[in-house]
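debug: dumping io for the single-chain case to check the tokenizer round-trip. Nothing else runs in this session.
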Amino acid sequence: MTNSPTSRHPHSVSANRHRLLRRIGTFVSYAGLSLVALLFLFPFFWMVSNAVRSNAEVMAVPVRIFPEEYQWGNFVEALVSLPFGVFLLNSLVVACGVTAIVIVVSCLSAYAFARLRFPGQEGLLLTYLSTLMIPQVMLVIPLFLVVSKLGWINTYHGMILPVAFSSFGTFLLRQFILGIPKDLDEAAMMDGASRLRILVTVIVPLAMPAIGLLALFTFIAQWKSFLWPLIATSGVEKATLPLGLTLFQTQQGTAWNYIMAGATISMVPGVILAIVLQRVIYRGIAVSSGFGGR
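debug: decoded output
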């Protein structure tokens, strides 16, 4: 005996209601995420919007969301008004130098804490990680005194070496390495590989997602760093981009449109690096969550 239409009706109404509620929930979720995304993107939009205005329009009241007249020449003026190429080169040297050293030191120390066993290991790790709680401002004066005694003021190594060690990088890579099976290390040891070779040929390739994430965080942090370059340099020849942009502030006033244009240009390397590393970072998130497959 088959079911009559009336007997199937309550189930069909319940299914339709459940489907409707699910669609409403999906719409609300996407609408909320879109609103949050707009809130995060608005400062960048406002920066670009002010970069193509006249300085008078930037300070005009009431505020206009879009410029009355687009002045794309502000980007050219920002590049030629100051030695922008020098600032860009200095920022690249400092950011890339710090990133390279942080990755090497973090890989070595993270492997030691994750794989080696030695007396006082846990206490040393805790002490190492406790440095994360020390504000950078408290370290500025001691670092400056050391750099000054060494004669490293206004030099690349004076800007790079004091900030080229990261407890966060060690912790991040250690946690990732702990998730790599030790059987791979033991197999490599049976083939006669040393600890250093195991790190380079086995651990590092598998830890590339975490290394890519660390590289991105470190590069962006140093690219936008202002306090330490301000302390460790004097003059324009070693100034980085954040310091160079302050030269648009003079006694005659502040060229906010040029500052915004320069800040927009300075974002390009970080955006490019994020795009290049996004596949590596996504693979790390996918593998760690168990949804990435191979």
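debug: round-trip ok. The chain is about 75% helix and 0% strand.
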